[in-house]
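Predict the 3D structure for this chain.
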Amino acid sequence: MKRQTLASPARLLVAVGALALVTSGTSGAAQSSDGLGEVRARFETPSYFDDDAGGNADADDPAIWRNAASPNDSIVVGTLKNGGLTVFNLLGSELQRIPAPAAPAPGAEPGRFNNVDVLQGVAVGDRTVDIAVTTDRGRDRLRIYAIDPRGAQAGAQALTDITSDAAPRLFSPTEEAVDEQRTGYGMALWADPDGGAPLVVVSQRHETRLGLFRLGVDATGKVTYHPVSTVDLPAKFEIGGGTWAPCEDPGERPQVEGMVVDRTDNVLYAAQEDIGVWRIPLTTQGFGDQALVERTRQYGQPAVYDEQAGECVVTGPESPEAGEHLTADAEGLTIAYTGDGRKLVASSQGDSTFVGYRITPDGLAHLGGSRIVDGRSIDGVQESDGATVTTEPLGDQFPQGLLVVHDGQNTPESTGPDGEVRTDTNFKLIRWEAFARATGLR
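Done. Predicted structure below.
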């Protein structure tokens, strides 16, 4: 990301949430003057502050776990980077905080949790469990957690770490190379269609590489993984008779973060931040031929890195080959499975909007876009990174499904003892049907 998912019955859960958090008053959809829909969040989580007083917690990516036996007790897991993981209920109240691993030695990078995904009904040795997996970008590893089947009723025991002590590095050739932070970044879980152990697609920070890994069990019964295959997406593109490469900070290449696997046809959708969305077929042996099915508005636009300003500066007009709907960075991707087909939702971070597409055999068909705007007591969403959706009913508050998104600029602003504004992020919970109406998905 660059800044330019003790017991309480359903009725008690709702009542407690009404006291602990205030809803926006409405989750209905409207439309702005530019034709984009507008929708309001139903609930939000607490603020997470990216400073020492806040534990350097910076919200980023969510994943939803559904409690089929008691949907009101479903939970959402969210990454907080150096702040570790948060687990919250469907009212946004935090249930559990899990710290990221400490640095293994003085001067080394500590754990930093970047992206997270959830998979239910996973075979782990001789038992079946539900798991949450996160990329530890700081230490270049995956961390795997078992989800308590009680869900929200488990409270601070909702997640239990089951990662092998011998879990290998994802991309770094040595432990010393980990500190260069070209490490595991974005990720998506994939259930093996042949019934084998789950697979994980992981992107590499500051590179175009994607890796496919398979989960397994070590001699102690804990979960580890091993590499299966890699693929490198392009860093340069033929445009208008010439070659174009997106402007990046020196030494960096156009990376991927947001990813999701379409379980219907075993296809990966991957958001290369400056470029757009790739469609990549998957097999249990690796990656198929990739196709760029959506481009950002900045695709093909010339820019150069200004060392004095420390940023990229545009030097020419937009390209006629650019896309029309995504403003870089292209970030979180999630798929809604509905009665009338599959809908891909993409976070257009550069203009703080969300874009909806129908997944077709030929690629993506644009359906519409929306913003998550201020309500009476819950602010809107800016600079969103991760997003996740389920269209399964989740109890009283989300009877037709739930969308959870990261908010990169939570308000109202808070100041620290020094009078400076604190970096404040959190997650917003939105009724799926309201978002779908606003975005043209139904």
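Residues 1-26 have pLDDT under 50 and may be disordered.
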